[in-house]
Amino acid sequence: MSLIHHIKAAGWAIPSARPLVFLAHSLGGIVLKEAFTILANSHDQGMHLLSRFRGGIFFGVPSQGMATSHLLAMVQDQVNEQFVHDLSEDSEYLRSLDDRFSGLALTKDMCIHWAYETKTSPTVIRKPDGSFAREGLEKILVSKNSATRNLYASRSSELFPINENHSDMVKLREGDMIFPIIVDKLKEACQGSKHQSVDGINAVPEDPSLLWRSPVMGSQPKKWTLKGLMDSLRVPGHAYRFDTIDKNFQHTFEWIFQDEEVPLSSWLKNGQGLFWIHGKPGSGKSTLMKFIFQDRRTWELLHKFGSEATQISACFFFHDRGAVLQKSFEGLLRSILYQIIEKASAAGVELTELLAPLLRNQSKIGEPQIGLWTIDDLERCIRLLFQQNRFNLEIFLLLDALDEYDGQPEFICDTLKTLMDMTVSSSTKLKILFSSRPWEAFQKQFHRVPYVQLQDHTKDDIREYCWGMARSNEEATLTALGAVVPEVIRRADGVFLWVKLVLRELTNENLQGLGRDELIKTLDSISSDLQEYYTRTIQRIPEIYRWDAYVIFSVLASREGSIVLPIMVGALECSQKSTYDECRQCLKMLGKRMDPDYPEEVGKRGGLNMFRIHGDVFRLGDIHRLKATHPKFKKYAKRILARTGGLVELSGHNTTCLQWAHQTVNEFAQSQNFKRTILGDRDWRVQENGHTFLAKYHLANRILFAAAICLQQHELTTGRSMKAFIDSIPKEAFVNNREIDGPLALAMFGNLQLYVKDALASDPDIFKKTQEKLLSVRTLEGSSYNSGSTHLALLRVVLRNGYTLQRDSRAFEAAMRGQTYHSNEQSIFLSVRSPDFLTDLIQLIRLTRTPSMLAVWRHRGHLDDSVGAFAFYEDKASLLISHGQNPDTWFLIRPEKVMEGPLEKLLCRKRPHYVSTLHLAKTVTLASCLLEHGANVNALDTARNTPLDHLLTNCFVHLSWKRSWDHETVQAVQTIQAMRAVRAVQWRPRFYQTAQVLIEYGGVTSTSSRQIWEECISWFEADQLDVAPLRECFSRLQFKDDGKPKRKRKYLII
Fold first, then answer.
1. Burial status of residue 903 (CB atoms within 10 A of its CB: 0-12, 13-18, 19 or more)
2. pLDDT tens digits for 39-98?
């Protein structure tokens, strides 16, 4: 714990921090391993900190224990005696810790080296006077086996000896021969594991050029409409946090307007700049901010009669437990822009005129759409609005919970000050009311602004709240609570949350028969500190229910603090089951309890008759039970709430959704000591977490996509695989899945590195024996090259260990078609590389009734990631070629009529079309691989196009439409054209490299016109690329007088 705190305090957890390497000696290595496992199970900042580590060196670390007999005499009957036992050579703790750490090192792609001692050290003995001295027998304290994890036979390059004893092996002196070796090992560690293999699985080096992004270019600019602008800025669920905040109780918080000593009213009326409301966690800051924003008096104080200025109020409530846009800088900017433009428009002020320069640039990609904004774009919009001198605007911003912003507090502080500075000499006047906890960063930045410390003013409010809650009970309970309410008020210290939890506990105990005196004793035992109160609440949960409580808390933590009740119940039922059949059976029994008519036969495709709502899975027939009034629903809800001591509650916005009772509970559940608090001494033995329980549940329901995500997260956070459970899944469970036909295929789909490692360890010939289709399985995140690198590494392991291409004959075609999964409401698969991609897209547009899919694609990152996605699939194809795939494979593209009218004529092919692999190659990696293995550089497809024809034409063909076409068809074509324009800009540097390779091997064009050549050369020149090879090739070609190609193009090439 101390190590983690020191690393964070040094600033290594911030996003801009540089990568880290470590040097760990002896027991320090054990401490470091434990710290890594703790960080892996934490969230956000902890996971980011762990990702900073590239690797390091362990010096004499007893990974598999050490001789401890000479140490036991020193600690006999002392508190640290168990610690010495845990260091013994048969220590279950050390082996478990080493397994978890090695798994984490593999999944985090670390480069680790292990040093071992070669000289003996004197052991400790007890002297006659009772003291201890290092005068005993000489021994190797940490054996070579233990210090190197028994790796010396398989991975000797990662190990090195140091000719010193255990203590002196890290006491380096000037001129030591070992010093250059350590420096070299550290250099390797700084580069990560890309130059070494970790248990046989290593990721391919990341290509920095894949991260290249370019501004969007495309079709003719279009005028932004107000509706289009608002749709592009809308934040999904922007009102969720506001709606779920409790309303102020009766007349509480009225003092904020009525108390003359509180400066808020005068600031609202005559003040300027910033105003800060701060208070303890749970003191009611968000409730007060909601009250201020909704109260009529706020508008009256801000409004100036006779003023010509347009008054606009906007709010943003940061929500740490919410979606990304509810707690991020982007979400803040988009939300306040949306509200300002909307309210200005309602007042007759058309702010789109101010944004015209930026909007004209944005509109080059077509109709404005959601998700097209970058942070730079949003900041420029804010700057245009706040620095303008055209309209008189008076803007009031209310920002709640700055401490729940998902970045550094210093950044959000600087943002507020920058916003104020923007309006100094403009016609926009700005006031910002914000709230937060009194963190040091906020106090340092805002100590001079007017403020209210909430707990200094809420004693009367807490008195009103306490008596109001007491009076809501029956007379007998009110009488009993009357004896303790004054003490609750006295001890509350302004924390409403503490009052709420304590009164609920006291009320429940009174209902269970405790009288006045017992309630007083209970109150005396309750700490006024929230964290201590939470610890006491957990410790009061009966031991028999502790496991259920751990499951609930860990599942909530894995789902960012919110989950629907049916999934939580299912995860609870599966949590202690160790096999697929056990989970399957318990879920069937659960279905029977919920529905006596539950069918014995399970649907072929839906698992336990499942359906999907907003990404979550439910059993068919349970939809009518998703009401809080249903008695069985209430039964399960009460069970969960009781077993968490009230720290989990049903969302007020959606009574079928479980969430933390407060943000402070979330922080408590993610604290380093939480697991020990709830599980006691068995905490280190329990490796399962929320991802584990959800993986079991989804696997039992055959929801493989959701299961794969959870399985992957389980490996990343625990350092262990779920091999035993996955291997228990029977073959028939995969029968109806067209792609994942067994446990190994599931591992390939989910990038389960640790499962593959364990499978090889248990059976080195497993890939020689299996009949599963492993090469054509898409990766879980196929559009991401970084995750694709892991998938490629697994493919290398599969092929290196005996798997042959003949067992998965469709793998190469699947790679060349580049099938990428894009999730939507219908879970439709799109083939990005398919020659019929455009027709697929139009079909999707019509199915979803969304006329412009560019918005959704850009929002989900599919367009921005297209370079990485294509590169991944072409790297996969290159890998298959290097293992024997025929480089001159030809593909038959069949016509497919999926629409009628103009789009059919424009996009659909008249007849089958043959192309070679080289015709489809876009990256220099695949093109070079094909040519090196003998591919024909000038092969002609059925339209007499060469590979170079395909390359030059691919992103420079423009579509046109007729005015007579219907509006939906025109919008679809515009969307396609915009997407092609985006792809062209992203791919130009790669096309240039590939074109150079084709020309070097003698490639020429057959059908490309002079116009296409000149256009391509001009684009490459604009990118400051050397076009001499292209001009030389161009000069050798002959064209007709009109510059047209020798053979007229009949169809569009993708």
1. buried
2. 887 665 566 677 778 889 999 998 888 877 666 666 565 656 666 777 777 788 888 888
Residue bearing tokens 């809501």: 472
**CA geometry: angle 375, 380, 385, nearest 5 deg:** 130
Q: CA 429: distance to chain centroid?
A: 38
Q: Evaluate whether 274 touches 315 at the Cβ level (below 8 Å).
A: no
CA distance 155 to 112: 11
CB 405 within 8 Å of CB 255: no
Task: Write the pLDDT tens digit of every residue in 805-838.
Answer: 999 988 888 888 763 333 232 222 233 333 334 4
Residue 974 near residue 367, CB atoms below 8 Å? yes
Q: Are 233 and 331 in contact (CB under 8 A)?
A: no
- Secondary structure of 572-638 in the HEC alphabet? HHHCCCCCHHHHHHHHHHHHHHHCCCCCCCCCCCCCCCEEEECCEEEECCCHHHCCCCCHHHHHHHH
What's the pLDDT tens digit per position in 393-447? 999 999 999 999 888 889 999 999 999 999 999 999 999 999 999 999 999 999 8
Cα separation of 793 and 795, whole Å? 5
CA 734 centroid distance within chain: 28
**Which residue is listed with tokens 């706020």?**
298
Residue 943 CA from chain centroid, whole number: 45
Closest CA to 981 of 961, 957, 962: 957
| Radius of gyration in angstroms for the set of CA atoms belonging to the chain, rounded to a whole number | 33
Give residue for tokens 């002392």: 78
Residue type for position 563: I
Using left for φ > 0, alpha for ψ between -120 and 50, and beta otherwise, residue 69 falls in alpha
Distances (CA, A) of 250 to 52, 291, 296, 464, 470: 50, 11, 16, 8, 14
CB 648 within 8 A of CB 641: yes
> How many CB atoms neighbour CB 193 within 10 A?
22
H or E element in which residue 275 lies: strand 273-278
Indicate the length of the chain as a whole number. 1054
With 0.90 as the threshold, say if the pTM is over it.
no
CA distance 985 to 967: 27
- DSSP-assigned letter for residue 653: S
